[in-house]
Design a protein that fits this description.
Length: 316
């Protein structure tokens, strides 16, 4: 189909976000799994749509289709989230494989993880000596860049873009590890130079950031210790605590589900989302992190956060 082979058995098996994934599509970004692990999610190539929309149209999201949730990027592929464990993909003819990974591991999985009961925030996260910290902020606020500054000092990436949090009965917020890639603008990558990172080709010409593949990442689900809302442009690094009410507003604002605002209201799902944000806000680990715009100031930002955590990392 459309230049892709279809078979009865998935060709690839991966692990991400605490899930085993069987896939007809190679997703080299993810950790490969060997053996006979039972899949939690299956990604299949399927001709589920009669006619693909003309390329050049804007993205199409249909949340009311009887088939499931439809997400279509004309010229790339049509995706059907048939249920919480199955994604059907219908690519456009001759589309490069790496074009498919971009929506699958972003909006498609963002929706699927929410449907599976996780709170998903638009954030980057690292683990420092067993403590997980995450960075939230507006587009181009420097979430990935700030994370990279910690990686340069020896921290381990746990996620970039999709911060998937589960809240078990213990009450602790637990972050599930994603995959070992980080998006960075070329100037940030040059200035920070994360050890062992491999720059990849741009997803498409003109894209502002390039994926960088890492040789290692945090593989264990880890308790969330701090959430920092980034504010860029300060003269000096600073940390300003947030009240639970302020933290709640920020968590709702930077939830990944905001990009699905046109979806019909699901009272049960929205109540679960609200309760998860409220539980994290009440724990008191949310603060504003003031970050100077100068890339060379990021080491001072790292030092300030480490002091706040009571942790230490060597200077590069």
């Amino acid at each position: 189909m459309n230049g892709f082979d279809m078979s009865d058995d998935s060709a690839y098996k991966y692990r991400a976000f605490g899930l085993v994934i069987d896939s007809d599509i190679e997703l080299s970004e993810l950790e490969a799994v060997t053996g006979q692990a039972t899949p939690d999610v299956t990604i299949v190539l399927a001709e589920w749509l009669g006619t693909l929309p003309d390329p050049g149209q804007p993205p199409i999201f249909d949340y009311c289709s009887p088939r499931g949730i439809e997400m279509i990027w004309p010229g790339v592929a049509a995706f059907l989230i048939a249920d919480n464990s199955r994604i059907e993909v219908m690519p456009y003819p001759d589309i490069p494989r790496h074009f498919l990974a971009f929506p699958i591991l972003g909006p498609v999985f963002g929706w699927l993880l929410e449907c599976r009961g996780l709170l998903v925030l638009h954030a980057s996260g690292v683990v420092v000596d067993g403590a997980c910290i995450a960075f939230l902020g507006d587009k181009m606020a420097g979430k990935s860049t700030t994370a990279a500054a910690f990686l340069r000092r020896g921290a381990r990436l746990i996620t970039d873009d999709l911060l998937a949090i589960e809240l078990p009965d213990s009450g602790d917020a637990i972050v599930r590890p994603a995959f070992a890639q980080l998006k960075l603008a070329d100037d940030a990558a040059t200035e920070i130079a994360v050890p062992g990172s491999q720059p990849l080709p741009l997803v498409f010409d003109g894209f502002p950031k390039r994926q960088h593949r890492l040789t290692e990442m945090e593989q264990r689900a880890t308790r969330l210790d701090r959430l920092f809302i980034l504010e860029r442009g300060a003269q000096l690094p600073g940390i300003k605590p947030m009240s639970p009410a302020q933290a709640m507003v920020a968590l709702m604002r930077f939830s990944y589900s905001v990009r699905f605002a046109s979806a019909p209201a699901d009272p049960e799902k929205r109540a679960r989302h609200f309760q998860a944000c409220a539980a994290i806000a009440r724990q008191g680990g949310v603060a504003i992190l003031e970050v100077p715009a100068r890339l060379e100031a990021l080491d001072a930002v790292v030092d300030l956060v480490l002091q706040d955590l009571g942790r230490d990392l060597p200077h590069g």
